[in-house]
Every structure is written in C-alpha cells, then in structure tokens.
Specification:
alpha/beta, about 30% helix, Archaeosine Trna-guanine Transglycosylase, Chain: A, domain 4, Ribose 5-phosphate Isomerase B, Chain: A, seven-stranded parallel β-sheet, about 500 residues, 23 strands
Length: about 500
Amino acid sequence: MQTFIKINDNDNVIVALQAMPEGTEVTLDDGSAVTAKAEIPAGHKMAVRDIPAGCEVIKYGYCIGFAKEEIKAGDWIHTHNVKTALGDLLEYTYDPTPVKEVKSEGATFMGFVRPDGKVGVRNEIWIIPTVGCVNNVATTIARQANAYIQGSVDEVIAFPHPYGCSQMGDDQENTRRILADLINHPNAGGVLVLGLGCENSNIDVLKPYIGDYDNSRVRFLVAQDCWDEIAEGVKIVKELIEYASGFEREPVSVSRLIVGMKCGGSDGFSGITANPLVGRFSDLLISKGGTTILTEVPEMFGAETILMNRCADEKLFSQTVDLINDFKNYFKSHNQTIYENPSPGNKAGGISTLEDKSLGCTQKSGSMPVRGVLSYGETATRAGLNLLSAPGNDLVASTALAAAGAQIVLFTTGRGTPFASPVPTVKISTNTGLAENKSNWIDFNAGGLIEDKTMVEETQRLFDYVIEVASGKKVHSEIAGFHDMAIFKQGVTL
C-alpha cells in the first residue's frame, strides 16, 4: 500500500494514506525527498515544499487556504497553520469548461412501473403525517399494519416530523412541498396522508401541492373526524397493501434511474476514494441516459466555479450563481460566517478548511455538464447532472434528494453514520478500516482505491451494486429498520 498521495502535480502538499511517524522520508515523483518534521496522521496533509506566510496551500490543484505562518517542507498542515481564503459574496463570470460527453451501452434494473409512468425501486406503503401532533398515531398504525404485508409490498413506514403548524413564511411552504413530493414518490406503492384537522398544513391545504393523484394509491384520514383513528388508519393501510401488492418488478432502463449524491462525516480520504468514485458512477449512469442530483450547497463554497463552468448554458450558470449566493445570504441573514465549517469530525479526519472539504465534496459531481438547477422542494425533470438547493445537514439534505425524485441516495462517509433517508441510502466508506469496524453501517467500501483496486473496476462494481439495490437488495439501514426524514427549517416557530 502507498504511504502517501499527491493528488495534483501542482499541489504543494501530499496526503498521508497511513500514519507517517516523525522522521519518515518520502520520495516524490520528481525524485526529491521530504522528511516529516512531525507525525502526520492518516488522511492529513504534509507540505512538500516551503510555503511562506500568507501564501496559498494547494490541494486538488486549487487553493484550500492561506498559510497562517511560514510552513516548511515536511511540516504537518492543518487548522493550526492554515486558514480559509473564503470571503463573502463574489462576482462570477461564465467561463465554460469544454466537457466531452460520452454515451455507453444501456442497462436495466428490476423496478416497479407506476400507472403515471414513474418508476420505483421499492414497493412500500408510506404514512405521511401532515403535522407533528399525529406522529405517534402514524407510527402506531405502521407498526400494527405491518402484520398484513403481502405479495410484493416491502414494508409499511411512517415518516414522523415536527412541522406542519406554528410555522411562518417559507418554513410552511417548505413543509408542504416536501410532504407533497414524498406523497408523489414512486417508491411508495400506496400512501396514507394522516392529518389532525386543525393544523395550518391540513389535508385540504396540502392537496393543491400534491396535484393530481390516484384515489387507489393515495388515501386521506383526519384524526379529529373519526372515533378511533388508529383502527381506521390500519383499515385504510390494509386496503393500500392490497392495491400495491398488484405491482411486480419488471425490467426497466437505467435511464429511468435518479440517484442522489451526498457526503457526511468526511475525512482526508473522501476526496481521494469515495467521492471521486461516486463521480465516476455519476458519469457512467448519465452516459446511459440516467440522472444524478448533487446537493449540500454550503459544501460547494470554494469549489463552486468548477460547477458553474460546467453548466450547459448561461441560464444554468446564472441559476447556479443564485444557488450559491442565496445560501450565503441565508448565512449572513442569521449573522453567521459563511465559512464556519468543517465539523470537528471533519477536522479529526484531516480536513482543514471549507475549501478543502468542498473540493473533495464536488468530486461526486463527476465530469458531465450541469443540466438542471433545482430549488428546495423542486423535483428533477432533466436527465443528467442536477444541482439541488439544500443545506449540508445529512438528514435534511438526503430527504431533499428523495423529495427531488431520487429513488436511491449514495452517501459517502469517512467517519460512519447509521442514519437513513426516505429512500435506500447506500453508505460508501472512504477507507477499509471504517468498512471493517462498522460493517453493520457500511454497504460499499471504496477504501480499496488506496490499496490494490483501480478506479475503472471499482466504478463498475459500484454501478453493479446500485443496480442490485434498485432491483430489491436491501441496504444495511433498511435491514435495521431505519427510515429517517427531516425538513429544512429556516424561520420562526410560533
């Protein structure tokens, strides 16, 4: 196994692939040798040439911050001696990057084709509360109704949340949009919309957001209007199970597959293994006519021009500028610094600045053109790479990906997490140690890329695994019975 990697020829740092004790000598491709002046933890950076105070620290071929003090070749580079180069709002100029689009032979998965033409990778019954007051009722109905599962129906799942009332402004709109998106999601063969009756986002208010729906697939229940809402809810869900059990898996082109991409608990290997692997997967799926969605806008800060210049046209470029600046203004409106990131776990894993994190994060976008830019709660309609407005928070962003139409979410992690989302959430570890230590969380290990695996073979292996998941293979969080959902809260609660 290699002891280090220099990601780009222009970098003035290397990344330790395993802990390098003080005094370790490494030889670079140009024949020069550098000796570690301190222990360099795995995933962390070491300078390979002197960097004067105030000068750029370069990783991935881009600036990830400025040296706080003079840094000597062999020094450990981290938060103690590097600071972000980010500022507030910026002016951007569209400078299109030539992108070679590739087409490849199609493939199929075994999915559920719905009457409206949408395709699901699961055949579940979802219970969607309109307000947090009926969360326990929803979970009780789901628990009791699972005894009646039959045929191709996978499971009855409730998605509790604390919203739907006492919210002001955009918060209430966000709640309604996300709930409506989930109600319309094709992974649900049947949906029970459970209301209380007196809430702001009651069923009558929510219906226009849902739009046209199939009365056989979507049913409604107002708890205040019946004597025993649990018994009535179970009765309705039994009818939904009977309806949904009529669906069977059938071959479907991967051009109908929409995959969300998210990272969390990143480490120094994220931008070397798992994230570029997901980027290669994205390119491969898009080459077959499929769709991917990248989100967590604050973790694009510092790398946003890479995405902007891959926009297919100037209109998309302008929408991406707004995507970035709207989030920066959101931070500023709450008197928060734009670059207050990375998290403690990120820092422990070797990430020093937000640019360091963002340049690794955007590796998940691959190399294809940006074909769509989505607002929060908007669903994807254009094949290819889409950018989605949502925060970095794992649960909120992954829920937003599902609401945008993703049937599966790929979630890369260097630290590990057991959470799930409304759709199958594939956990991809950045390193083999994590995959081995948390095998009950991790579904796919990308750590082989710093051992003996090639990017080509691992891309195909990940693609094949996603096809298996789309065709019914359960991921670890599903096996554990985990199904999380979170809505973006921005405003005042009454």
